[in-house]
Amino acid sequence: MARRIDHTLLKPEATKDDILRLVEDAVRYGFAAVCVQPWWVPLVADRLRGTGIRPCAVVGFPLGGTLPEAKAYEAYQAVRAGAEEIDVVVNLGALKSGDEDGVRRDLEAVIEAAKPQAAVKVILETALLTEEEKRRAAEWAVAAGADFVKTSTGFGPGGATVEDVRLLRSVVGDRAGVKASGGIRTLSAALALLEAGADRLGTSSGPAIVRELPAPEDAASDEKAVP
Length: 227
Known about the structure:
This protein has about 230 residues and is α/β, with parallel strands linked by helices. It has helices at about 15-30, 40-50, 70-80, 90-95, 100-115, 130-145, 160-170, 185-195, 205-210, 215-225; strands at about 5-10, 35, 55-60, 85-90, 120-125, 150, 175-180, 200-205. One of its GO terms (cellular component) is cytoplasm. Pfam families: DeoC (PF01791).
């Protein structure tokens, strides 16, 4: 479970001490990545060096309407600072306008700036999209070269849902990963999203989720109790 979690803190008021606690928790529980605002990437990358946990930066966050050149430069600088993953917000206005060329050009600029050093996840903000727009966004993201499609920023009107994760998995198949994020606070919610097809979970509640898991001796006792 822990290796499926991107331990996340994107609140604008987060302090250095908050970020250091985030990193300490990530190391303690063995999470997959630590996802922060670009400002904190040098600190996070330094503290995570040698742990196998990947520093992750958000780009064009949280609205997605930044110019492609600005997004690309932001991604480039984040990678130079040590980011190994980039979570970029799709241009929602272009997407909802049906502007495939604009959306793909925007994402391709970021992907070119980030790779091969960093994987790129495209945040779709599914709560603002129709079902057809979700399908279209996932297809365009994969066509642009994205490694993952991601449900939400956590700053929009809704977060990850089982239905959206299942839909995105059906669209991307095995061509890309699916990251569920936004509002994931319990083990039951995390398990439901993984069952629906998520590869990664973006959450600030990773420690609480992992602590809900049964201890190894409890799991062994449960197995023995099954006839």
